[in-house]
Amino acid sequence: xxxxxxxxxxxxxxxxxxxxxxxxxxxxxxxxxxxxxxxxxxxxxxxxxxxxxxxxxxxxxxxxxxxxxxxxxxxxxxxxxxxxxxxxxxxxxxxxxxxxxxxxxxxxxxxxxxxxxxxxxxxxxxxxxxxxxxxxxxxxxxxxxxxxxxxxxxxxxxxxxxxxxxxxxxxxxxxxxxxxxxxxxxxxxxxxxxxxxxxxxxxxxxxxxxxxxxxxxxxxxxxxxxxxxxxxxxxxxxxxxxxxxxxxxxxxxxxxxxxxxxxxxxxxxxxxxxxxxxxxxxxxxxxxxxxxxxxxxxxxxxxxxxxxxxxxxxxxxxxxxxxxxxxxxxxxxxxxxxxxxxxxxxxxxxxxxxxxxxxxxxxxxxxxxxxxxxxxxxxxxxxxxxxxxxxxxxxxxxxxxxxxxxxxxxxxxxxxxxxxxxxxxxxxxxxxxxxxxxxxxxxxxxxxxxxxxxxxxxxxxxxxxxxxxxxxxxxxxxxxxxxxxxxxxxxxxxxxxxxxxxxxxxxxxxxxxxxxxxxxxxxxxxxxxxxxxxxxxxxxxxxxxxxxxxxxxxxxxxxxxxxxxxxxxxxxxxxxxxxxxxxxxxxxxxxxxxxxxxxxxxxxxxxxxxxxxxxxxxxxxxxxxxxxxxxxxxxxxxxxxxxxxxxxxxxxxxxxxxxxxxxxxxxxxxxxxxxxxxxxxxxxxxxxxxxxxxxxxxxxxxxxxxxxxxxxxxxxx
Length: 717
What we know:
- The chain is an alpha+beta fold.
- It is built from 19 helices and 24 strands.
- The radius of gyration is 55 Å and the shape is rod-shaped.
């Protein structure tokens, strides 16, 4: 239609002006006789032209390819043809270039009202939805569920779509991942971008509808978000989102294996209910990709789990003790589940508590906090009673455990019962930092791994029992062998004592005659007579033989001690004085502590024992030396410690074990009974004796006398 150069007057029917159209928010124009007679401010803004360049024009404002079609449609409408549509898409020429618009024509008396809608944003949104469909089409073939979700999240972020990925869990909904586009941040740059979150929220109406119906449209996203965050954060969140503008939301459900799994919420100001089909298609694409990835992942995980279980079985078969198995076992679990800590709890003997016996991935502070936890009404008790693993949130634990888990950023825990044979021995606890839902395959694998842990613990327990029994048998065997040796020794000493008694008795009578004869000879032989030397030799040998008889009788008929508390210093002084009489080359050094308590001993027997030790020390130093006598209070056991130390040549190592044998001696004139009698005296007083002789020379005999004792009869000869 040709344009007119005449000035058009914007008059309505009956001469009424169209000024009331100026305030309308949408673009509207009036055509009369194929010319624009009125254009409101919104239409002028869309065209980008002043009013005088618009009035009087007509179809030349359309794209050249659309002018003829527009003119024909207008002519047919003016003729009143039936069946014509009233809305058309076309291309409008503006000051900034061509723009795709939607025209709605309405007869109004002699005039035609034209409503103009800009389709540019809708086209952009349509292209965005097409890109979303392309994103969904690119997902098949990905082998990991996590990788599928990562691609989905990255793709939605590239499209500048604000979204949230939620996983329902009973009465709560966990927000697992979110992205805030710049247009939904109300100017807060710090709020934009991807956010890995793991917080629970409440069900909102849109979430509930989408969970049950598959998809839902929400007109007021701010209100839905305030319902999700709860009463404490509702008002701040709603206020912030209202600053952005009227955001709308579409929520679609993600299904796997025919069951609902998660919800995807997309928020934008341009979303309308007619976008639901596009979002449902995208959700179906994501669901199919996740299900495919799960199938592939399940096969891979099953193979991985079997390989891990095989490795654990090999380690369990060769581990020398449980701790050698725990570390590789924990590494297998961490590699399989991507958890961050593994803890092993075993029941105490009374089954009233659980004790942390091993851990991996927790600090010492946390380990100390859970070193011992009560068993009654605990999650571990329930798991052991049920006999199957359970996955629990940190919120489900008592306060003192929950607070510690929060401080350590532990959100989810998997508890695995440890069963050895027919009894439960403890639980294996696996912790995660993010909210985690374990698959049935993962739970089955965990239970199998728990069986390996339990088997390692039970094997160690049985091994310890076997070792304990073996040690007990070895101890009993040693005791039996010692008892047999004592019995043999006792019988040998008894026989030796009986023989000694007979010999001593038979020798005593001839000795009496010899002493009588020597006394008679002394009367006839003077001091200067040649036979005086021979008489002296006879007298000395007779005295030595008499002493031997005394030793034999003491050894053959030992007496039972009659202990009385006696100061040891007095007995030691008497014995040393007697032993060193006439020994001018022997110097005596005393080291008697003042706090040595009186020890209950048989005074006669202990004096003789001290005398024998002092004589041995003096005889070990024929060229002279130092005899050191020490006494002090016992430190390990109540009593006294007495030491005789000489500076002689010492005793060879190979001879020390025989020193206490009867009749064993290294001296030419010794009887070999002195130390045997000392040993028997110490045994009768429940004391101990040992001999120390370093390679550098010298010998120390150490006596340990108890402070309290029961009188013990000596062995019968």
